[in-house]
């Protein structure tokens, strides 16, 4: 027995702890054994005999294993054996190795310093755990290897402030050894910065002058804060309202710990691939397409032109040439033309829809877009269809025109924001815009911005899944229309143009009049030819 020289109560505690750790390790996929000084820790025996069915990585170097996060995910159990005299130095390599693996469970055995005072032990453990707190690693337990003292486990409470915990070992579940602290942060402040992107975040003032924030993304993050027991604090942007900033600014704010979450929907950008870990699990999926004004009704002169077309004239000529058919076809021709004309006048057909970017180029309609968003598009697409766009750097102007359903332009819009526009059109007499098939991007994942080792990353991921499963995000997006109305950004106004029936007027008969005049001229010409032919014959007979 390896503990023959250990007091019985210590051996009993160690056996209980081993049993618990084996149970915890079996729930994970892989084990990382970190022993830079090659010390004889108790875990070496455990690693050699109890985890033979698990993938294991043994690291006996003080240099960090910087590519560990490429081989394993957060379902990693870490057993570390550190020299108590060199723990602060050896800890640097361990923390660097566990970069982006903040949810891993870590158990550290400190060897040496047998005669050190308890107060010094507490100071050493506090320094070590504070380093883990800075890296947002909450699942850390430390104990000192000893053959003569009771087994004490050291950990810490991260919320609402750092608190060192020391407890004697008792038989318990792994959840007690590694409690899920993120499930209740006890009123810890969650700092969130928004980007003035309506309807994701809508900022306005009530009758008492108090600032209020609404919107689909704000509802999303406010509910998340409530779920984990955090107090939400809005950090006001330093840039003016109406200015659109890209990913880089939000990435920098979260990286330097100015804020916890940047409430800015973004896609993982190749330009910032080295900051991949700062993008959250996708919180929504949306297509980025063109919001097109509905095609205008065909004008009345065009309806007459459609009926009195070349085919109609040819049909009429056949009836005139074949005299015996004229009596049969005359009534049929008149009835068909009259029926079609009346139908088209009552139910105005619309112009052919624009179904491609080439058709858009050929029309007089253009897409109004934001300059910074346009340059995110593929370079080949921009080169080919740049003439189809009119760009503005004033985001407020863009939102104002789009929210007022100004039909002078088509607009770029994501599918989730179109949900809000569609909700408003339900109050119209008729729809004004449609969500077209002209898409700039199809079904893209959108994330928000976090610190690369954010303590909220995993909790936010599971929360996002539950929100999607419950359909809450779609509800918040749809309700953002009413938030916009309450904030005065949108109004329950019918922007559709009412088409009232009216009697035909003289200008509407331009095409029939032209054909009538043309027919009279042709008849007069034929009559004159007949007269000329008759008088020529009379003249020739009198010679």
From TrEMBL:
Q: Which residues cross the membrane?
A: 515-536
The protein's name is Uncharacterized protein LOC117574482
Q: What is its main location?
A: membrane
Q: Give the source's domain of life in one word.
A: Eukaryota
Lipid bilayer topology: Multi-pass membrane protein
Which terms are listed as keywords in the entry? Cell membrane, Glycoprotein, Membrane, Receptor, Transmembrane, Transmembrane helix
The Gene Ontology CC terms held by the record are:
plasma membrane
Question: Does this entry carry the keyword Cytoplasm?
Answer: no
Q: Does the keyword Glycoprotein apply?
A: yes
As for subcellular location, the record says: Cell membrane
